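Question: Hello, beginner here. Any chance you could explain the protein record under this note? Any guidance would be welcome.
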Amino acid sequence: MELTVAREAFGDVLIAYRDSGAGAAHTVPVLLVHGMGGDGHTWDRFAARLVRQGRRVIIPDLRGHGRSAHTDSYRFPEFGADILRLCDRLGLDRVDLIGHSLGGYAVSWAAMERPELVRRLVIEEQPLPLRSGDEQVTFTRRLPSVPELWHATTSLLRHPRAVLAFDRSMTGVALEQFRKPYPEWWEGLAEITAPTLFLRGGPGGMVDPVKLESMAAAVPDCTVRAFGCGHSIHRDRYHEFEAAVLPFLGQ
């Protein structure tokens, strides 16, 4: 599968992305957004499947990852804003968005801010933040969990280039955002109009099932699918992932 590599500058950040091209038969492109510490190559297998179906596939590297530039700021809304700016720069008026983990924040934020842009939304194993008024995370829980350590270790073994390119300065900022109340995100869920598919892993995943119930209730059209694996469903249960997502995307 050949994808053209390009870069776009948005203010002080340079975002790299790969694009299968605008000549695809299907009129709605699919954007695939990776998680923290990875890059767009985590989607290569699924991207090839989509291209064979006639879909245009666009795979950005998030700021601070892969071929994209390191920056001084890594707030969750900024990752989503980069996705929207890329869509605008490419002249896209309708897209399907798929995001894993940190990429889930990016695509959900984009769907809240620009609901008319998003036709289908798939969120895979996005760790859900605390709601306003929830108990603060204790110091001991700020240490990496076993699932977090396992995912980081296996990612390093499978994709060392992505891990080496990753701007480690974002780690503390990102983990703090994952583990603090984020009422603006919860309030924005009602703005999402796209049919939404949330994929959660099993005991080795990073999704709180109680918060997931609240999220699914807040999004107007949300379906939850559970898998018996850890944090990276598209990597560790690829065929199950494909069987769930392709019919949801449809044609």
User: Anything to note?
Assistant: Strands lie at 4-10, 13-19, 30-33, 57-60, 95-100, 118-124, 196-200, 222-226. Residues 137-146, 148-154 have pLDDT under 50 and may be disordered. The first helix runs from residue 44 to 52.
